[in-house]
User: Which sequence fits this backbone?
């Protein structure tokens, strides 16, 4: 059973979220051919700023855990920030850094300011469509400082082995210049790394980084509203035969 | 005239939430509204958060739905 078919996921999400969908065109080149397709779920504030994200398909347990973490962290952030938007943002970014440390044993410094990043036509830090038109900014993640110092090697190795079995696992180098120790990261650890610097950024600015930097698919359009989110099921959920 | 009527009928067939605020599961246990904009307006009113799915390309994963 898929995550979005799971009754517990449905019950929880329908209680705490209002859900919607958009289509994004993406692709990757495999053996000289364009292939593509993926999914990302963004948990957002009502104004569309992204609190958290699940990149790629995950099981129901993972989806539910991430949805609950978002709701609980949002409640704590509201309480702590007392109506101060800057404090809310700071709380959320630090929470992502802390979750990355706790679940993956990786240390990053949360970025608690927003540097000015205007997206002009000539800005190099921009994802573009095949014609060169700017689509979304490249949001650089904060560098991984290294393994959490409170973990001994054995505990860190255990977390690394779990990461090596998770979706999107790959090896990256720590440090600002990427010359430090090599560690295994996953789609979800990369989400926390990006969100430790860019949570509370509008979804239109984040989606490019999620698809290109985390899921490894080039974006070729901005997100667009569609009438059917899943091309393989009809409106009643009946599975459609693949088109030849 | 006939052609545009047929087009409208096709849109009505596939776009299951016909009215603002109506929801449709699209084969999932989630209630989806038509657009993130609509979701945002309802979320603000009901003091909820917003969940937006971005589905891309030729993604077809029976494990998702």
Assistant:
């Amino acid at each position: 059973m898929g995550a979005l078919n799971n009754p517990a996921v449905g019950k929880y999400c329908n209680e705490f979220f209002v859900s919607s969908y958009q289509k994004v065109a993406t692709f990757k080149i495999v053996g000289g051919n364009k292939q593509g397709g993926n999914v990302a779920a963004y948990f957002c504030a009502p104004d569309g700023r992204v609190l958290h994200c699940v990149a790629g398909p995950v099981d129901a347990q993972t989806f539910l855990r991430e949805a609950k973490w978002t709701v609980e962290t949002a409640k704590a952030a509201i309480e702590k920030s007392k109506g101060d938007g800057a404090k809310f943002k700071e709380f959320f970014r630090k929470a992502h850094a802390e979750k990355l440390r706790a679940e993956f044993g990786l240390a990053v410094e949360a970025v608690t300011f927003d540097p000015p990043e205007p997206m002009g036509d000539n800005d190099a830090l921009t994802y573009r469509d095949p014609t060169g038109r700017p689509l979304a900014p490249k949001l650089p993640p904060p560098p991984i400082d290294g393994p959490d110092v409170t973990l001994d090697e054995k505990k860190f190795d255990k977390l690394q082995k779990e990461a090596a079995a998770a979706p999107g696992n790959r090896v990256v180098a720590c440090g600002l210049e990427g010359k430090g120790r090599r560690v295994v990261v996953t789609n979800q650890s990369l989400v926390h790394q990006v969100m430790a610097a860019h949570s509370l950024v509008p979804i239109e600015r984040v989606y490019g980084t999620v698809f290109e930097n985390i899921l490894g698919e080039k974006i070729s359009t901005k997100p667009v509203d569609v009438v059917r989110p899943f091309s393989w099921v009809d409106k009643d959920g009946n599975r459609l035969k693949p088109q030849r | 005239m006939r052609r545009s009527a047929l087009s409208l009928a096709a849109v009505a067939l596939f776009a299951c939430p016909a009215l603002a605020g109506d929801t449709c599961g699209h084969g999932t246990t989630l209630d989806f509204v038509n657009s993130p904009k609509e979701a945002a307006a309802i979320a603000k009113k009901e003091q909820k958060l917003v969940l937006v799915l971005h589905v891309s390309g030729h993604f077809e994963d029976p494990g998702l739905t």
